[in-house]
Structures are given as structure tokens and as C-alpha cells.
Fold this sequence. Notes:
The structure is a homodimer. Chain A is mainly α. The first copy, chain A, folds into two domains: 17-62, Homeodomain-like (Arc Repressor Mutant, subunit A), CATH 1.10.10.60; 72-215, Tetracycline Repressor, domain 2. In chain A, 62% of the residues lie in helices and 0% in strands. Chain A is built from nine helices and no strands. Chain A has helices at 17-37, 43-50, 54-60, 64-88, 92-109, 125-147, 157-174, 181-193, 208-215. In chain A, helix 4 runs parallel beside helix 6 (125-147) and helix 5 (92-109) runs antiparallel to helix 8 (181-193). Chain A is elongated, with a radius of gyration of 21 Å. The N and C termini of chain A lie far apart (59 Å). Chains A and B meet through helix 7, helix 8 and helix 9 of A and helix 7, helix 8 and helix 9 of B. The structure holds a DNA duplex. Chains A, B: This is DNA-binding transcriptional regulator, AcrR family. Chains A, B: Residues 197-228 are annotated as: Disordered. Chains A, B: Residues 20-79 form the HTH tetR-type domain. Chains A, B: One of its GO terms (molecular function) is transcription cis-regulatory region binding. Chains A, B: Keywords: DNA-binding, Transcription, Transcription regulation.
Amino acid sequence: MANEAGGGTRRTRAERSDSVRNRERLLVAARALFATDGLHAPLDRIATTAGVGPGTLYRHFPTRLALWEAVLEEPLRAQLDLVERALANPDRWTGLAGYLLETCAHEAERGGYLNLMTTRFDGAPRLSELRRQIQRRIVELISRARTEGVIRPDFTTEDLVFLTLSNSRVAEVTRDVAPGAWRRNAELFLDSMRPERAHPLSQPPLQPSEVALTMTRPAPRKPLSEED
Amino acid sequence: MANEAGGGTRRTRAERSDSVRNRERLLVAARALFATDGLHAPLDRIATTAGVGPGTLYRHFPTRLALWEAVLEEPLRAQLDLVERALANPDRWTGLAGYLLETCAHEAERGGYLNLMTTRFDGAPRLSELRRQIQRRIVELISRARTEGVIRPDFTTEDLVFLTLSNSRVAEVTRDVAPGAWRRNAELFLDSMRPERAHPLSQPPLQPSEVALTMTRPAPRKPLSEED
DNA sequence: CTCTTAACGGAGGCATCACTCCGTTAAAGT
DNA sequence: ACTTTAACGGAGTGATGCCTCCGTTAAGAG
Lengths: 228, 228
């Protein structure tokens, strides 16, 4: 009640214009460098690119995670949108297949954001919550497709995540040379999901506890490689 | 004629025992650290692990590439063996499927050696030559399987390499939690290769020039990730 | 226009890693 | 045992990246 915007005993000072501007610049720079150089792009370089000193970066985003939180929320929401639209599709197969391809496309574009779905964001509750929501929808997506028989009965949610994860490596390797090459690979994956082609799998699906661990592994140190 | 072992005007000095011993120690340490920490494990740490000074390491292996050359030859030969054995198998499908699974197993074990087949080794002619040999056999393996109709007709050599590449990511992510989980993924891949009821692929195979570029990308900077 | 103060930014400390130089050690030949 | 000399190893240099401290600047309020 006290100290609210404009109503307290002590007025909250308005945010300084340069502060707002710098924050925005930092986010732009971070988005760019995360995409090209990965989620561990040098912070000093992000600051330089934004045209501010390192001190300013750390004032706005005390940790790398804070910066991730600010930058990654949008792509995660986009991902959530993707699942929602897949769920809305009455044709289960088309919905699911479209989801896989679009997710792969999503990751192929933003090379640096690779594997958002399997990256741990401890200390970034908003991101963690988003990831949880997305995963819930994927479970739904798979279970519906399975009950309607458009995918093989032994196919699980984790299998799907692993397929997108798998494809991200191909996207990573081919992005400079043949930017669309991942699609062919992903379409092969689609055929591996179909019920009429299924052969028994020797390996049982992961235990729930294993899934939890695997899906929340720490963020990769250096997802992309450069010259040698 | 002159200066040969024992026959020249000036005798070639025999190799010092400590030199041989240290070289061996360095190789042991390098093998271990490459496997656990990736092909870019700190050289100083390799030296320390081997119980020698950094100077000694650089004397034996002036560049990181020289160390790779010494360490990676054996696994590449093993890989060559794998293809040979697959080719020797009269049952084309079993041979090919076995090759895929064993290759994936191979990469899953030696996490640090990931994607030997798509890593460039400029300046290491022996490794490059080995890789070329392996690739030639794979082409043979695929073409035989295709003409005998045990795989889909639109499946190419690069598709196979990309599948193993894909799976390596899964192996990487699951190795600590569920070391065998990659196999399920790889078996899904097998189903995507089968000829029956294959669905058309929208993307044409890579151009030979694109293949060459993709298959010889620089070695990854930090293949593995640790705590965060 | 003046004052207050938050925001700025960069110099610099610390850690890691690649790589070298050189005084010391000890292996091998006599 | 003595000599020669290759091999040793670690201190040291430079580069990179993380992060902080603090003197300076300028935004916003009055």
C-alpha cells in the first residue's frame, strides 16, 4: 500500500532514460551474440557490442543467468505457441509432424539457443515454469497422437525431445554450408515415428527420474565451434 | 644409405628411456582427458596428469594437432574395422544396422572423440587418409544396401553420417544419467532407414561440395559440458 | 541554473590456458 | 667414474574472460 507508484510517502524516482536505453542495447547485443556465438558468448564482448562498459552490463544483469532470463523468455514463449498450435490441429499427425519440423527450424535459426528444452535454468523461475508448461503440452500432444494411432505405440515424449535434440546437431554442423539440410534429417525422423514402420525397440523408455535429470542438464559451455 | 640405423658415418643416438616413458605417459593422460573433457582439454592439465612439465609435452607434441594425431589413430582404425566387418556381412541389413549401432556405441563410450567422421584434421595426413578410407567404405555399404533393397532408395551416405551425428548428441546428454539411452534413439533411426512405406523427403541430398565442407568442419571447441 | 544522486564506464585484479626460455638433471656412451 | 648433451620441468609471458571498485558524468527534480 505504501511506496506504490505515486502513492507512497516517498516518491519512487522515475527510471532514467539512459538506463532504459542501455538496457535495451544490451538485450539487442546479447540476442545477437547468443545466436551467433552461443549462450556463453563473452559478457565483455556483449557489453562492447552494446556500446557500454562491463560495469553497466553487470548492473543491469548481475549474472549471466539474469541475462538469459531476459533474452530467452521470448523464444520460449514462441515455443509454447508452437505446441499450442499443434494441439489445436484436429489432424493429429499433421499437428505433431508440423511441430517437430517447426521446432527444428526454430533451433536451426537461433543456433545459440540450442536445446532450450533440455537446458537447466535454476534460479530463473520464469524460464523454468515456461519449460514445464511446454513439456506438459508435449506430453498431451504425444498421448493424443498415440491413442489415435498416428504414431507407433511405443513412442514416448522423451523420444520426441531426443529427436529434436538429435536434429539440432545436424543443424549446427550444416548451418553455414547448407542451411536447410536439417530438414531432410528431420523428415527421416518423422518416418521413424510412424506406426506402420515400427520395429521393436530393445531399450525401454527412460525412467521418470532419469528424464528429469536429463532434461535439465546444465547449459552447454560452448555450443558452437568456430575456426580452428 | 648414409645415416641409416647403425650404418652411417655418424651413429644415430639411441632414444633415451625417460623420453619414451614420458611420451607414453602423455598419451595415456591425453586419451583419458580427451575422453572425459573433450578434444580441447587443457594441455597443461594433460601434462600435469602425466606427471611432466608443460615443456615436455610441447617437445613431444608441438601442437595440439600432433597430440590428436597420436591419440586418434587407434579409434579411427577401429572405426575402419567396423565398416569392414559390416561389409563382410552377407546380410546387408544386419551389417548396416549393426554398423550404425556399433558406431553409436563407439561414440557414446568415448565422449570426447565425438564425431570423428565430421571433424577436420588439416595437417594430420594420416588421420585424413583414414577418414577418407572409412568414408569410401561407407559409400559402398550404403550403395550395396540400396541396390539390394534393404533400405529406402532415397537414403544416402550423408544421411547415415548425419544419423550417427544426431545420435551422438543424445549420447552426450544422457551418458551420465542413463548410459544406454542412446540405443533406443538409434533404433528409431534404423526404422527411418527401412524401405517399406517410406515417405518422400522434401529436401534433396547435399551437393558433393556441401558434403565436403560439412564433413570436414573444424574440431569442436568444447564438446562436453560440466556443472554450471 | 543548481544540486543531488543514480548510472556510467573503464582500469584493474584474479583466474585460466597456451606456449617459451633456460638453468638443471640425468641418460647413455666412453 | 667422467663427459657430453638431450631431455626435463617449471617459472614466466601474453592473451582472454569474469567481475568489481570508484572517480566521473549527466539525468531529472526543484
